[in-house]
Automatic annotation (TrEMBL):
PANTHER family tied to this protein: TRANSCRIPTIONAL REGULATORY PROTEIN NARL-RELATED, TWO-COMPONENT RESPONSE REGULATOR
Domain HTH luxR-type: 143-208
Domain of life: Bacteria
Keyword DNA-binding belongs to the record: yes
Keyword Ribosomal protein: no
InterPro entries for the chain: CheY-like_superfamily (IPR011006), NreC/VraR/RcsB-like_REC (IPR058245), Sig_transdc_resp-reg_C-effctor (IPR016032), Sig_transdc_resp-reg_receiver (IPR001789), Tscrpt_reg_LuxR_C (IPR000792), WalR-like (IPR039420)
Alphabetic keyword roster: DNA-binding, Phosphoprotein, Transcription, Transcription regulation
SMART domains: HTH_LUXR, REC
Family matches, as Pfam families: GerE, Response_reg
4-aspartylphosphate modifications at: 55
Name by which UniProt lists this protein: Response regulator
Originating organism: Sphaerisporangium corydalis
Domain Response regulatory: 4-117
Gene3D superfamilies: 3.40.50.2300
Length: 211
């Protein structure tokens, strides 16, 4: 299956470099390039890409605001730098499916797009601990009632999302089909009022015990 990618970055040279990397992969296709968030949202609605590779600091509409709209349409993989934590937290709340540092090499970028496209969340290892700590300190907690709304199987899935497992790994661990795993993930996100798998992972990390 070909993964259709929309690249959004206000620096033409950066976009060109990313496109060059992605065009070299048989399973990736760049379907569009956007120079700002407003253009990215408009193009995503028209092109329906599998993943939007999104910069944060852009003119007209920044990456966080764009992600808030895009997360209703498709998955968003944020490209960020290590000193922009406040933007990363905002993008997380907006529903981004993953975060990757701009210092990542080509293989890491390509792998991240594949991870997000198959429905798994991804956070750059360098910022995972900081994200969990900061988001846990500032985000409004989900009360026990929300987690109690989950079925026992959904709570098992949530716990494993918090451990960083992919859908395929959860399916093996819980002895069920991967399609069934995806269904459980979708349902628990809806019940918890979460926009993305990454938010679920951080919630699971904040719980004192397995849900």
């Amino acid at each position: 299956m070909t993964i259709r990618v929309l690249v959004a970055d206000d620096h033409a040279a950066v976009r060109a470099g990313i496109v060059l990397i992605l065009d070299g992969q048989e399973d990736l296709e760049v379907v569009g390039q956007a120079a700002d968030g407003e253009q990215a949202v408009a193009m995503a609605r028209d092109l329906l890409p599998d993943v939007v590779l999104m910069d944060i600091r852009m003119p007209r509409l920044d990456g966080i605001s764009a992600t808030r709209d895009l997360s209703k349409i498709t998955d968003v993989l944020i490209l960020t730098t290590f000193d922009l934590d406040e933007y990363v937290f905002g993008a997380l709340r907006a529903g981004a499916a993953g975060f990757l540092l701009k210092s990542a090499d080509a293989a890491t970028l390509v792998g991240a797009l594949r991870v997000v496209a198959r429905g798994d969340g991804l956070i750059a290892p360098e910022v995972t601990r900081r994200l969990i700590s900061a988001f846990g300190a500032t985000a409004p907690p989900h009360g026990p009632r929300h987690v109690a709304d989950l079925t026992p199987r959904e709570r098992e899935v949530l716990a494993r999302i918090g451990q960083g497992m992919s859908n395929a790994e959860i399916a093996v661990a819980l002895d069920m089909a991967e399609a069934t795993t995806k269904t459980h993930v979708s349902r628990l996100l809806n019940k918890l009022g979460l926009r993305s798998r990454v938010q679920a992972a951080i919630l699971a990390q904040r719980l004192p015990h397995d849900p």
